[in-house]
Every structure is written in structure tokens, then in C-alpha cells.
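User: Fold this; C-alpha cells only.

Assistant: Input:
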Amino acid sequence: MRWDNLTAGPGRPEGAAGPAAPTAPAALFGADAVVTRTFDTPEFRGITFHEVRARSIVNRVPGASRMPFEWTVNPYRGCSHACVYCFARNTHSYLDLDTGLGFDSQIVVKTNAPDLLRRELGSPRWTGAHIAMGTNVDCYQRAEGRYRLMPGIIEALRDHANPFSILTKGTLILRDLELLQQASEVAEVGISVSVGFTDTALWRTVEPGTPSPARRLDVVRTLTEHGIECGVLMAPVVPFLGDAPEQLRATVRAIAESGATSVTPLVLHLRPGAREWFTAWLAAHHPGLVERYERMYAGGAYAPTWYQRRITRQVHELAAEFGIGPSGRGAARKAVLPERPAEPLPAGPTQLTLL
């Protein structure tokens, strides 16, 4: 793996202040701070964890991005949810790791994320801006059950009364329910759960490492019952596989029954890395759709505007029918969307970002 290009060199010790020398590479973590582990337990079998000590944890989203947030925190790289469409897959190539199975099974863990975040939030140059989490890889993937980074992260945000939002497919977020309640008493907290469809056959093949859609909607129900508003990011809507009118109706109905405060549809997008992996999956499971996808995504990573608008209109009409509304401008922070390329906190150590 290309660790050497991502670690602090001899002239740039861990924690050094100020910009790096012109000849020094951008450093994600200290050169002597990588520990690789495997665990022979059913939930982690076949997964390798690379424990690192990150040099920075708060990333800036570029101004050109359409995202409704400016700052993100990502305690993990790679994701055992193994969603075949995950847009973050190409980031593993920065480490010379495979963007297919490697992305699903080679997980980088920033073990010092909570302490580092507390330090960065306490910096005089930090202004208390909203921080989004889970907008790249899921911060409540299976690894979080072992490493428990999120409690410390939420505690740091709570103690600084810093607003934040979380997007997840993981049911493990309920472990931190009390902390989320405490944080919501002192700052704006937005939670969104990702449920693009309720078709179990589609879920088992396209999102094999995730909790079922029904279990995710139980998370929504539990959070709202405990006073934490929770929206649903209906993502992705998968063309030709999850976009039939009856499928959209069933999904929006289930979302409404969960007590979700909002529903925001997002059509599948296929960036480099994800596109190749998804196309291979499509050829294996639905070969008759390969040419249709090639035509639909001939213009790039995103489906045609007319198609996106059609799906959005259908979902919004169904949401109104079932008594929930789409996320408006005022709820943007609660419907966290996948992020665009991130940049590190200005004037601080550089962190390799996930896009």
C-alpha cells in the first residue's frame, strides 16, 4: 500500500505546527502510527483494519459543491456495508487499495478521531460551524461496534455546543441515543437514515453488508419516539430496479409509517470506481440492463435531469399523500447528502480526503 506518500516524513514530525515544507507530501498520519489487525470473529471475518492516528479530522467541502454543509468529519475509510454503488470507492485507490472488495474489507480506522476533534473544536480559529458526518463512508458501520469512536465524537460536539448532522444506514446509532439527546439540548442535531427502497431481494444483492431496510426504519421510529427528529434520505433510487411506481409507493409508505419528518429522494449516481464495480455487479445479476445503463449514464456520473426530476416529483407527491413532506431549504442540515471533494481545515495539518 502507498502508506509512504500519506505519512509524515523525517522533516515533518507528528503534530508539527505550520505548513509542511515544499518537498514534504501531504500527511494523513504519522509514519510510525499504522497498526494492522484482523479479528477472527463472525462479524469481522475477512476484514482487515488499519489503525492510524490522523493528523486532522475536520474537512472542508469545496465552495463549488452543491452540498448544504461546509465541514465534515469521517472517522473511517472504506466500509463493510459493501454497497455496490458507493461513490466513495475510488478513494481507496489513493492508498493503492482495491476499490472493489478492498473497499469493503480494508478499513482504515482513525483511532484518535475523538481527541483530535475535541482539540480542533477548541481552536480559536474554529467558529462553531455545522459538521456533517456519514456523508462519505458510514460512521456507524460494523467497525464502530468495536472501535467506539462516535461516542467520543458526539461528546466533543456536545461539550462545544457544536451543531452537527449524521447520515447512516447503521442501527448502531441507537447505542448513542442518550448522547444524541444530550447534544440536541445544546445544539442543532439532524439525523437522517438512508433507505432507498424496501425491496428485500434488491437489498440483499446491492447492499449486502447493511441492516435491512425494515431495521433502518425501526431506527427512525425509535429516534422520533425519543424526541429526536429523523428524516430519510431515499437513496439511491436505482433505475429499472427500484423505480417502478409500486416500488416507490411502498417505500414512501413505509417511510411515512416510521414517523420520518422528511423524505429526500436521490437517484443513483455512478462516479469512477463505483461505476466499474456497479457495472460488474449489473452484468452478473441483471445483464439485460447493462446497455440501458450505458445509455442512461452516457453523459457522466449522474442520470439525466429529466429522470431525476420525474423521480423527485413522484416521491414528493407520494410523501404528500402519506402525510410527510420533502426536505425544504429550512431542513437542509437534517437531510445530509453525499459530499463532494473535501479540503482540510485551513492553516492546519493536511488530511487526505475521501473524495
